[in-house]
Structures are given as C-alpha cells and as structure tokens.
Amino acid sequence: MPYPEGHKLKVRGKIIESAAQAFRKNGIRDISVPFIMKGAGLTHGGFYAHFDNKEQLVAEACRYAISDTIALLQEAADQEKQGTKINAVIDYYLSQYHRDKTEMGCILPTLTGEIARSSAEVRQVFTDELERMIDFISDLAEVDKSTGSALLSNMVGTLMLARSVNNSKLSDSLLTAGKKHAKDLIKT
Length: 188
Hints:
- The protein is mainly α.
- The protein has helices at residues 7-26, 33-39, 54-79, 85-93, 96-100, 108-115, 120-141, 145-164, 168-185.
C-alpha cells in the first residue's frame, strides 16, 4: 500500500526538526545521523531517502532553526503592549529561560564556531540565514543594518557566554549586562 500524499515531506520535516533540536543543544560534530533519526522516531536506514549527506541536513536544520527563532522572537514582540517591541525581544533572547532551553533556542550561539569549519554549502545557508536574522532585528528595532548587526552580535555573544560558564550568578549577571548594553545600542 503506498504512503499517503505528502508523507515523504512530513517525514523530512520531522528529521529536520530533530536535527535542529539536536544541533541547538549539542552542536554538529558530536551528533550522529542515527541519533537524529532516533529523535525523529525513525531508523537511520531511511536517512538517505531524504538527504544526500549530513551536510545537506545541517544546512536545512540551520534554515529551519532560524525561521523558528524569528517566529519566537516575533511572538515576544507581538505580546508587548506598552514598551518597544525590540526591548521585548532583547528581554526574551537574553532571559534565563532562553539560556537554559538550548534545544529550543537560537542556533547562532551554538553553531557559530563550528560553521566556520563547515562546507561552502552550509556556510552559505548560514550566511543567508544570519542576514535574514539581522534584517529582522534591524527592522524591528527600526535601525540601520550596521546597528542591527551590532545588536544581534551583542545578543548572540552574551547568550554564548552566559551558556558557557558554570557559575549561575556570573551567567545571570552576563545576561543582565547584555540586556542593558543591547538596549543602549538602540536608544535614540
């Protein structure tokens, strides 16, 4: 009996989602195809029916994860009723919740170091998605791309450092300082 129409796309989506979650939490190098497939509820034998190689999956997972992060940040902005929308995004991005939920958070702090050593295909997708994220932040903050780039760099770097330390007080103080300086960047 043949699979229903759209089945292959649905399965591919589950694999990409599983990969994005795994890469957000653990990076690329230490995550195997069998681990990703298990996370999608599938056996690893079916992987090559959907992807040519792991690099192609990394590229697709980056695209998916950035789209997911933009949607989460847009949701935080849309919930803001009194203050500025960009401040709500900064508060969410540099929150303890976002710091601690790596598997659901922004992929930029986790993968940036590894992407520099990835294939040209993966680096191109990452570059395109980073530019999309900069555009989103710049538009929301109503600033030029240079300021938007600095703002996003501040936020990603702060989150990266806050996730890296094993001292919760230091981590929290990094988040607090990062929020203050991110908001100072966009004051007019």
